[in-house]
Amino acid sequence: MILQSALLSVRPESASEFESSFRKAQHMLTGARGYISHELNKCVEKNGQYLLLVQWQSVGDHVAAFVRSQGYAEWEKALAPFYVEEPQSDHYVRIRLDGPASLAKEREHRAEERHED
Description:
By secondary structure, the protein is of the alpha+beta class. The chain has one domain: Alpha-Beta Plaits (2-Layer Sandwich), CATH 3.30.70.100. It contains 4 helices and 4 strands. Helix 1 packs antiparallel against helix 3. The two termini are about 15 Å apart.
């Protein structure tokens, strides 16, 4: 599993409209090959800044499949007008940490995944 992070900077005066458009456009993301889940987070300190986290089966599912799809073209058409600058996107893999706190978090994460299925 891969975690994509995308830092989205939108015009602060358009934040509500961006969020509404994101809600409408998210089906283009959720229907993509290799898509697992996503969440959109609004920054507390910086008005107009969002962090999009998307779980993919692989980097290829995001870069080779989704970014080159018609769904992505529609996604961009719906959301790009709100961006102040091009989103910054990176991909991460989970690092297993040992210890009671990390084990409890891992169990919690697995339980959440089971409830989503």
